[in-house]
Specification:
single chain, 10-stranded mixed beta sheet, globular, binds calcium ion
Length: 477
Amino acid sequence: MKRLTIKKLNKPALKLAVALFLACSALSSFMSSASEKPNFIVILTDDQGYADVGFNGSDDIITPHIDKIAKEGTRFTNGYVTYAVCGPSRAGLLTGRYQGRFGFGRNPIIDPTDETSGLPLNEQMISEVLKPVGYTSSIIGKWHMGTHEKFRPNKRGFDHFYGFLSGGHQYFPEDLTIDSIENAKKNWSWYRTKIMENNKRVEIDEYLTDELSNEAVKFIEREKDNPFFLYLAYNAPHTPLQASQEYLDRNTHIKDKKRQTYAAMVTAVDDGVGRILAKLDELSLDDNTMVIFLSDNGGARNNGSNNGELRGFKGGYFEGGVHVPFAVRWPGKVPAGQIYKKPVSSLDILGTFAGITKAPIAKERPLDGVNLMPFITGKDKSAPHDVLFWRAFDQGTLATRRGNSKAIKSDRDGNHLFNLDNDLSEKNNLLKSDGELYQQQIKEVQAWESELIEPIFRPLQGHHVGNKNKNKKTKAK
Ligand code: CA
């Protein structure tokens, strides 16, 4: 066959070819700037401390695969979640909105007959936002967004669910002795319910973290040809502290038993992350997949975690409660090896996905998060957020960070003002020396609070995360 060369084309044909070429390239560049459909994977750990990943300096817990996300992508040194416990933090992440706007201001009750205790149906989760632009979504792991039939994942835009509905779980198959959440009548017995795949009960035979990783890999295989959103919500390293021997054996350098078990649980997660990244590589999906890693709140006081120089733990609004390990990788799009220091939030995850895909966001439910892409690529040099806010209704706590200045007003933990620039450990309370700035910031967080509503469901029975004021109106007002 003869090759068609420009020489052989006559002039009008040449003009037409050039015009077509220009039109096509203009269209393709318009298309790529207008919207893209990469895959999205959010890997969320549970109660993992800020300092418990290699990329934040851990020298006893070894996380080469999680570190790969940070190394080949951007790591956030000021990454925050919107609440210091599991349920509300996830409600913020999944909706891109402060959970107090829709009354998810405490952990939900685990009761499948309760029609209030879940994420309100008029809010939209990432899965629901991405569905109209062609995404298939899966939640693998911990749900915690309501146990009533109407609140379950398959009703919330998730095409696939593999995991459990409650806020925590036993890790060994032999301990999963209760058939369904309907039969888990006693508090915390829901930790023993069998794993579900969509609405069916399944039997597992491996350590739970490994099972979740297996399912994640299978989902990626299955959906390799379609745009997908995978929300991989490991319950590790949340209590109960349970690790299989294989992972304990890889952490014998840690002598403290509690810390060793916790580390082993993180090792299992890290292995899972490694398998997921390897699968993306094998299927040549690397460049077309954004992978985000973060923890749902800071390390807990009771699980052997380490928040490094950050003060406090899960449940509180010092940095240790809400400042989490956070990194994003998207080869060729998100700068590799970058350390991004301006505050970012888990609220920005949906903002970023919507920004990239141009998925529409309903006007009546504006996002509190933003698209991080212009910021992390350096196109926008300003800060994604001038200010971040927190409210923990039951403990009467309001907190806010504006620039480097953090103010906390709390019935439980007292009133504080810190300059995080030189006092990340929040040791030096500037309340007395700079009362005016404190008042200014509290006024600002109170104005934000006036947009919120009270929790719409009752508190979890017997669940006292430092909560002396439950059922009372917040005193922080
Ligand atoms: Ca948690």
